[in-house]
Amino acid sequence: MSLHLRAHSTTIRPHCKEVTIISETWTLDDIATPSLLINLDVVEANLTRMADSLHSRHIALRPHVKTHKSVDLARLQRALGADGITVATIGEAEVFVAAGFDDLFLALPLWTTPRVAAKLDRLSKLAKLRIGVDSLRGAQALATQLRAPAELEIMIEIDSGQHRTGTQPDQAGELAAGCQSLGLRVVGVFTHGGHSYAGADAVKRAAADEMAALEIASSSLHAHGVEAKVLSAGSSPTVDNLGGTVTEARPGTYIFNDRQQVALGAATPDQLAAVVATRVISTAVPGQFVIDAGSKALTAERSALLDGFGAIIELDGAIVTRLSEHHGVVTYQGTPPQEGTLLHVIPNHICTVVNLYDHFEVSRSGQTSDSITIDARGHLT
Amino acid sequence: MSLHLRAHSTTIRPHCKEVTIISETWTLDDIATPSLLINLDVVEANLTRMADSLHSRHIALRPHVKTHKSVDLARLQRALGADGITVATIGEAEVFVAAGFDDLFLALPLWTTPRVAAKLDRLSKLAKLRIGVDSLRGAQALATQLRAPAELEIMIEIDSGQHRTGTQPDQAGELAAGCQSLGLRVVGVFTHGGHSYAGADAVKRAAADEMAALEIASSSLHAHGVEAKVLSAGSSPTVDNLGGTVTEARPGTYIFNDRQQVALGAATPDQLAAVVATRVISTAVPGQFVIDAGSKALTAERSALLDGFGAIIELDGAIVTRLSEHHGVVTYQGTPPQEGTLLHVIPNHICTVVNLYDHFEVSRSGQTSDSITIDARGHLT
Questions:
Q1: What CATH number should be reported for the domain whose range is A42-256?
Q2: CA–CA–CA angle B107, A341, A327 (5° rounding)
Q3: Which of A32, A92, A109, B361 has the most CB atoms lying inside 10 A of its own CB?
Q4: Looking at beta carbons, which residues of chain B come within 8 Å of A196?
Q5: Does A213 reach chain B within 8 Å, measured CB to CB?
Q6: Chain centroid to CA B148: how far?
Q7: Model confidence over B98-107: pLDDT tens digits?
Q8: Over the stretch A104-158, which tens digit does the pLDDT of each residue have?
Q9: Whole-angstrom Cα distance, residue B108 to residue B378?
Q10: Residues of chain A with C-beta less than 8 angstroms from the C-beta of B217
Q11: What value of ipTM does the predicted structure carry?
């Protein structure tokens, strides 16, 4: 499989603005399509930049591995400055603990069934494991079901404005005290400023909300006699704006970036590290062409900031406008590319796209290709 | 793991109408969530009904296995009357041929790279394999790359109104003659009346379009000296309205049905065979609760006919209104169910949901549970 380098210029057209993409990409001549390609040079640059940026602000980097679900890439993150990892499911925790990771934060208020408790008990013997709590009932389930509740470290989740999960910041202390009285060990507070995804204008405000909420929550814990040694914030968009008393950030998407991160101003086009390779399979219907990447290759995820389901790198302004499971329809008024043409799509949201694949096809500028397993793909529970 | 039966009544609220769901469902006490549950009694009833209905109209049933991607379920379809299967990718074809299926239709105008050609050559020795063509260029790639092009059976794809792929019906003969002159063997014409998904009003018209287009295409082939022995139509919504000269139908979703099929009038609520089991993980934010099924468990697929990303069976009118990867936010004005409550979600579109899981949790009314592997999950190429 030979490797060619080409420079492409593409325009992404979100509703509100235009972003010009200029990125080097690759052609793997007989690559199976649809496939998920990553450029490891860009990945490494993204990882190093984030670690350096956070460390210069004395903030620890605990990347969310739900984005890539890959042991090899988590090892790369660790080698390039990550301080522990964040996971979303017990299944992810199992994969990464089995691979030797020993400092994990399961950043969700998971419900503790007997099955979950058995796994948490086992994992917390093998690694330092933190878990989120946002209700006294959730804390009671943990305390009741676990054999060794004090082995776990509890993080109180607070709502800094996304209004998804998390207790109010000024009520965090009461919940933390409740956890402690159940025999649980609270070590800090965390939040996810997901309202940053409303648009580029929202990013700075969301970061400020995260910092303010964590500070209020920390004071609330202190007032209840609990010290928060960890103040954990962060989404990929807000992380550049964090500072103050924040001790840790948990970005995920920054390893690859995607069309949405570029639209938010959280990444530049040359920081895009992942694309879906696809081929044109039909030009039969006028005014469009069809690629072999549909909703099972790109997801059907939309963004309020973006038109369609992905941007074609090679064709200025070409957007995947309609999806079937194995067809992507690209509205296109010019002469369509011929059947068989290899194209590359920048997905809207890379995290859910990665979850559709078993491995990444990997390239470096000027080197031959390789493959990296997506070890925790589908580990949903 | 014990099994309980409960009767639930739920209302699905699409934009245009309300559909009342009354279905028996199951509670697997310590089931891991999110999980994909199917009721095998309902599956078998769906399979038998479709086979009987089509056979009474002298139409062969070639179910699309992309919906379930499971060897066990394809065997069940065969045992209950299916005449061959339809697949969407080479990877799916490989899985089902390896499992002994010997009559497959790859219903796409796939692009033939050297890699694809090698696989098609191998598969066409092991099974009767049909493949779609909608361009002369695509036919040329097949004829050039294959070692044994005459082993394959070619189906000309025509556009009956979905405007996705397929040549115009009256041009099918010219394309078929072109294929024959390249040494390919054309056996019929096919179409997918996907414009049926526009709404319940569109279903009958789309079925009529399919029948009319196939008849025109068949005549066009005849005029060019090619006999179409197969006239293949069908999507799950249109299949009940097929007749005339149609020889074969290719429904997929009918095995499980989903929220969209019910909204289209193509299934009744008691024909829903698949749900996602989930638990409440947070009630911290007023006016809503959060379940552990997000976009990696439900997909982010929307339908113009439906609000949100899925309906909660147990709670009348409760819809998943917002998704993160591991969170589903359910807007809910009443007293929310407590953290830990087990709920079941009817997905919008079951085919893409199945592709997220490695296995089905299986139940029958009154029997203990089992598991069925989703063998071809992620076989995208």
A1: 3.20.20.10
A2: 35
A3: A109
A4: none
A5: no
A6: 31
A7: 999 999 999 9
A8: 999 999 999 999 999 999 999 999 999 999 999 999 999 999 999 999 999 999 9
A9: 17
A10: none
A11: 0.93
